[in-house]
Structures are given as C-alpha cells and as structure tokens.
Amino acid sequence: MNNYLRGSEWRKWDLHVHTPVDHEWINRPDLSSEENKKQFAKQYISFALQQNLSVLGIVDHNFCNNLDDSLLPYIKKEAENNHITILPGFEITAREGSGIHLLILFPENTDISRIKSVVDQCFSPGETLIPNNGNIPVSNKTIDEIKEIIDEANLDSIFIFAHADRENGVLNPDTIRGTRRVQEWHKDFINITQISKKIFEYPENTFMYKVIHGIDTNYKRNMTYINASDCRTINPSDAAEGRYYLGQKFVWIKADPTFEGLKQIIYEPEDRVSFEEPELLKRVNENKTKFIKSLKINQIAGYDERHGIWFKNIDIPFNPGLVAIIGNRGSGKSAIVDILGLCGNSHQNNDFSFLRKDRFLNKGLAKNFDASLEWFDGSIIKKNLFEESDLASPERVRYLPQSFFEKLTNEIEEREFPKTLENIVFSHLPEEQKLGRSSFQELIKFKQETIEKEIKLILDEIDQLNEKIIDLEKKQHPDYKKELKEKLVLKQKELEELEKNKPKEVKNPAVDTTISEEQKKYYEDLKQLKEKIKEIEDEIHKNRETLNNLMLEQEELEQLSKNLKLEKQRIERFKDENKHKFEKFGLKIEEIINIKIDTRKLEQIIKEKNEQIKAIKELLLSDSEIGEMEIEEEEKARLKKESLIVRKNEINIQIQKINDKLSEPEKRYQEYLEKLKKWQMDKNAILGNESKTDTIEWLKKQIRFIDSELDSRLNKLREQRIEKAIKIYEKKNELVEIYKQFKKAVDDKIASHREILSDYEIIIEAALNINNEFINKFLSFINQKLKGSFCGKEEGEALLKEKLNDIDVNLKDNIVNFLKDVINLLEVDHREPFKEKDEKEKRRYIFEQVKELKNFYNYLFSLEYIEPIYELKLGSKSISQLSPGEKGALLIVFYLMLDKDNIPLIIDQPEENLDNESIYKILTKFIRLAKQRRQLIMVTHNPNLAIVGDAEQIIFVNIDKKNGNKFSFESGSIENPVINKHASNILEGTLKAFDIRRLKYFKH
C-alpha cells in the first residue's frame, strides 16, 4: 500500500536545492556522458544520506535548457533506491518589482517534460533559459500568470517565496516596496516562505520579526516558514557565505515524505514544522523504554486454524505520537489495544473487552496466539494471549479500556477515583515537598500524625461523655421513673409495716426501788458496757468509712503513678525513635527534651496511705482472722489487743455473762432494748439517705432529679459532646488545609491551560466528604424492625440518604445540625403516620432502637466517616451533577492534562460517553498537548479526535469474518490517500467535519 506505515514522522527536508545544471554551481563536474551523470547522482544522494535528508526539492533556475541536460531522472532513480523523495520543480524570477524569486514544486511522479513545457511558457519563445554567461533571464510573466500557466497545464503545484528576506526576496526592500509588496505577499496560493534564519533568530522590533509574528498588520497572514540550503555544492569545503552545501540548511517536517505530506504544513505549521530537532525525537531518544515501536501477533507453531485464522504474521509499527485506530464495529480495534495492554502489563485486564473469558479467551482460543511488543530501545516483551497481567509488577502502559472508562464514568463518586486524584496531586508535587515519601498515602500519614494524636485524646473524652449520656437517657424512659415510684411505694409500705411492728415497750426494772443493790450494779455495768459497745461500733463505722476513702485515694494515687510512668516511657520512646533525626541536624535530643519527672513525693504519699490502710485494717481484724495469720504470737497478741472487733466481742461476752445473772424481768427488758435497737436500724435502713441506693430518701431524690434536673443535665452533656465533635471537625479541616497545600502545583498546571480551557473550568477541590461506608455502618447499629424514624430497611436508608444530601459537610453548622438531627430522629418518630400525633406518641428511646449504643455514639461523634478528599469539579458542578457526556469529557481532559506519567496512554473509544461539542471545543486541544509528552494510542470513531487532533498515524483494521476471522490492517498518515479514504468512510460525521483542515481529506 505505502512505505510509510508508521505515519507522519519528523524528517529533514531541504526544499531549495540545486544541481550542476544551475549556472551558479561551484566546481561543476563533467556531465557530458550518461555514466558521469549516474556517477554524480550517486555522489549527490550519498551526500544527502550523510546529511540525513529525506526529501529534496530540486529547483534549478528556469529548470533546464533541454531535458537532456536535466539530472533529475538520474538523481530521482538513485534517490528511490535510498528511500529519499525528490520533489521536482524550478526556481523562477517573476517580473514584479526587480524580480521576485519563486520556488515551484510538483508531485514526485510528475513528468519532467510537462514541467519543462510550463517553464518555456513563462519566457519569450526561443529565449535561452540558462545562458552560459550566467545571466539568468527574468520571466516576462507575473506571479499570477505563472500560476495560471501551471493550472492550465493541470499540474498540481506548491508555490514558495524563495529567500524572502534576501536578494530578490519578496520581503527584501530592494526587490519590491510599498503597497505592491503587500499585495504580492498576500497571494492566497503562496503559503510557504523560505527565510534565511530560524524564526527565533530575528531580533525583536525588526521588520522580519514583526512580519513573522503578525505584529505588522499589513503583512499579517497565515504563512509557513522554512529554511533551505539553496545549495551550490555537495562539498562542504566549497561552501561560502550565501552559497551553502546540500543540507547545510534544512527544516524538520512531520509528514509523509511526499508532495501530499508537504501540503499539510500549509495548514498546521506550528505542529508540522520545526527549525530545531523536534521535542518528540528528543523525548524518544531520552526515553526509549517508554515508546512502543511495534506489535507483532502470530499463531503458535502447530496451530491448525480450525478455530479461525485470526492473527497471522501481523506486524504493526507504531508512531511515537498520536495513533488513531479505526475500523468498522467488530473489526478488531479493541483486540489491538487489549493486546497492547496485556503486553504493557496494564492492571486493568479485568476490563478488557476482547481478551476476556466470554470472548477470545473462551475455550482457550487465545492460547493459540503469541504477541511481542517491541520498544524503541529494542527490548521485547512476549506474551501468550491467554496470559494475564502481573499485578505485582509496574504498568508499562496506562490503558483505559472501554468498560473501565464506562465504570469510572458511572462510579466516579466512589473512593477509587479520589485515590486517583491523590496520586495525580502527589505526582505534581515538587520533589522537596514529598519529604522522601513514595506515595500520597505515606505523605499524608506523616503530615497528619500529630493531628491524629490530638483527635485520639478528644475521642477519649467523648467516650466518657457517652457513658454519662447513656445513663441519663435510660433514666429518661417512663419505665425507669415508674420503677422508682413503685419502689418508693413499696418502701413506704415497708416503713408503715415496720411502724406497726415496733417492739412493745418494757419498763426498766432498774427504776424499781425494791430491787437489790446487786441488781442495780448489774444494770449499771450493762449500761456502761453497752455505751462502750456503742463507742466501739461508732469507731468501727468511722474507720470503715475512712478505709473506703483511703482505698479510693490510694487507687487514684496508683493511677497517677502508673500514668506518670507511662508518660515517662512515652517520652523515652519518642527520644529513642527520634534521636537520629535530631542528630542529623547536629542536635542532641537530651538538650532539647529535658523533662523532670520526680515521683518521690507521690511515692511518699502512697506509702503513707498504705500504712494508714494497714493500720485501719488491723483495727478491723477479727479474732479468727488474726489466728489464721502466720505471724509471731507476740504480734498476734498485739493485733488482738488493738483490734476493735476483738474488743467488741470481748465486751459482748461480758454483757452476756451479766445477762445470764439477770432475773426474768431484767432479761425481758434487755431483749426489748435489743429488739428496739434492731427496729431502729431497720427503720433507718428503709429511710436511708440521698446517697444510699434504693432507700426512701434516695428514691425521692432520683424522682426529683428526673422531674427537675435530668433534661437540663442531659442537654448540657450533649452540648459538651457536640463541642468535642466540632473540635475533631476542626482538626479534620486542618487536614483539608494540608490537602490544599499539596494541590497547588496541580492548580498551577490547570491555570497554565486556562486559555485553552476558556469557560471550561476544571477544578480539583480539597474538601471534607462523608465516606461511602457511612450509611451501611450507621444502619448496622439500628434495629430497623422496631418503631422509629429509621424503621424499615429501605425506608431507613432513604431517610438517611435524604439527610446526607441536604448537608454540605464543609460547613461547621451543618455538622452540628446533622448530629442533632440524628439524635432527634432517634428520639422522635418522623415517619408519615406519626407526623400529626402528639409528642408522647411520637416519642422514642434511643437505647431501645440502637444496638451497642456506646459504640454507636463513639462512631457517630468521632466523625471518622468524614474525611478529606480531592473532588474533580466542572465549575460549580460536582461530578454527580454532570451529564454522562460532561463526565466523560472531564475525565479524558483530566487524564490528558494532569496525568504526569509519561508511559504510553491507550484509550479505547472514549467517545462512547462523550458528546461531540465537548470533544470539539476542548479535547482535541488536550490531545495535541498530551501527545507532546507521551505516546497516545486511541481507538475512535470520532473525526474530531482523530483528524482535528492531528493523528500522526491512522491504523485501519479489519476482521474478515468470511475468511476464518482473518485480521488485517492498513496504516499510514492522514495525508496518505488510501488512509484518508478509510478515515472518511469509517469515522463518524460528514466531510464538513473534515474540512476544518482542508487537505486532510480527499472528497471521494
């Protein structure tokens, strides 16, 4: 089909060259014989090869006197053998002004006799075109007349202003001036100008600078500028100022080395012409492992083709720029990019559309085919098409299969895409801001370490508050108050019964004057002993209370001691872990951290408390407890002597001995006193006090608390909990600020493309967001079978989603309101049937609906479900508000503009989710930008992506289903006529879309 399968490539072109036919050739060789002409042609092309020239425009002045003199046939033949293109033509001096020099080039296969014919018509009949005296005649025709002669001859041609800023150049003031010069400059059929310098070498404010850059409005027009040698020798030693050797001056052109390829530079010089080595070639040379050179696919040895021919001896070369793969549906487009993805170890192999189990992998068909991917460094990756990507190894290509693209478009709000944004942000961070971290996750973990510690302290406080709140919430329930009241009634009845059963009074026999002195003494002794018992019991009670307080104080002191030790260990651990970091800066951590923790006074107090506890415990030891102790008898004797319990028992024995000596009346009186004492103790136990559980006074206090204090106390604790949650929220906003700092480089990158983006405002916003797990986790705590706002699985989920949709979590007041709303929804039934009910009927109790209530509260008020993320937005619209077309366009622009990776980017049919307006306005510009830094391979049906995006290579693929599913392809550039026809037939749209770049399509 053609020899340029890799499409438009950068090559060196010299479009103004002469041969010894020209009168000014230096040291003209002897060309009198056929052999000499052939020999010179060999020398000429050999030198062109040395100069790495691919295209020569041979334009001898006035062409030749006669065709026998012309060297074109010889040079052309030699050039063809060496893959150099010769564009035949001539240089001519038109009669305008003092004679404007023009170069006129023709298609490579133009019959030179036809060229000779048009040249002859540009001069007076019989005039010698190249006289021996060197005085080359000026044409008697104007530029327009020369053009008319060529058109009438039905010859395709390209006119070029020769050496425009030098002698006989259209922009040289000595050639032509004023209005006439402006008129000639604006000839619409002359769109290429040869200049003597590179366009960036002209000083500012000079006439040529102003013309080239459109500053001088008289000369402002679309014009393609080139350099060329205007050579007069192929011997560098013969060259002189103004007389250059072949290829000494040239221009880089990205096109097929053909006449049609040359036409492309007329319409897109900024992308097709370069005065220095093109950046693409530099990038390829510097990064050969990141550019695909070719893909080979073949059957394995022994495959009998019973399941189809499919891929046989396929060898597809790839251009390092933009490659568009086109073809009808089912023609194998996705097959090629899937195979590229497989060989390039794409991690998206689950999203392949051709190499999948229900298609080419079905029944092991793919096992019969091997592929090898060659890179520009010569390395080759071989894969059997049944293999899978190695997810443990890095990707060599970034492949966006069609299904992956659709999935990303549909699920862009999911957590995976924010992770992608994080990776993009990290890739744009200056190296010094990465702090030696290899990923965004590592960096943010490092930066937020202190914040997380502060949050943990707040969480501990919230946990304690939740315990108190849950206790009060349970006390709010009517059943709790009802239970208290019922207990109070029972206690009061118990007291009434006790009052009824108060021991009947027995008179004291001691007041009887008839008793003996001995009896009186017994009574007096009993009285004294009982008073001692009372004193001892009071002392025992007092010591027990003291012991309780001491034990509590001891526990608090022990906790303080432990916490101090832990804090000391934490500081020591911090010093050990960070010692080397301080040393890196010449610092001694001991000089920076010098904290004194002196626990001696604390330990002394603990020791004193322990001694006090020991002393009191000894006072409260019983006789049996002392007897069981393994200590010296002397020590036992001491303990018994000091023990209040032992003393009480000893006095009780004395009392019993006296009681045994009393008369019956006296015994009855003593029994009465004991019963009365017990009765009073029982009464005191029932009445109790406000701090003694389940007594009348305690129950009354609890009921009073519920009636007058509980709600305000609960509200106060809830407010404190909200305040703690907001402190966490503020800490999370500190993380957002870190996220914002990180994305500055990306913001700058987007801003640098603001002119292209225009009103298409792409924003990466750092903000807080409720994660996707929140709804499920929240509802997992709720018993949705019970009455309440969240009753019913679907209804409860819908209500929660509705609440979430109504809040912007980046506003503090919204978070406060949301947390309060959740509590309200749990305490008040907001379902439709209950809206008109009274407060009592709508009232619900949280602990009845929520499982693991403390864990639920800790989760809800920890705000762990609110996290900083990056969000891709289009203006004020978030992703969820965009149409599928807008989402698709935004995604592709995102990848093309911000994905900093320079490995090949392969996209399969992105237009499936796009609208043409978006593509035409924005994407083609970013495709052009992206291909300037990475190889871009794209399957497409869209003319804007392929043509306006100026694909360097178009690969037309086909699968012949009637011939064993045989795959075939044709490849080349846009300007290639055969490829051009395929493009216009296959790509969606009409020729109207193609006319944007006129010469890119032939209207068949």
Automatic annotation (TrEMBL):
Q: Does the keyword Cell wall biogenesis/degradation apply?
A: no
Q: Which UniProt keywords apply?
A: Cell membrane, Coiled coil, Membrane, Transport
Which SUPFAM superfamilies does the protein's record reference? P-loop containing nucleoside triphosphate hydrolases, PHP domain-like
What CDD domains does the record point to? ABC_ATPase
- Does the UniProt entry include the keyword Transport? yes
The record's Gene Ontology cellular component field reads: plasma membrane
What is the first-listed, main subcellular location in coarse terms?
membrane
Q: Which residues form a coiled coil?
A: 448-642
Q: How does it sit in the membrane?
A: Peripheral membrane protein
Location in or out of the cell: Cell membrane
Which family would the database say this protein is a member of? Belongs to the ABC transporter superfamily.
Q: What is this protein called?
A: Uncharacterized protein
Q: What is the lineage of its organism?
A: Bacteria, Pseudomonadati, Thermodesulfobacteriota, Desulfovibrionia, Desulfovibrionales
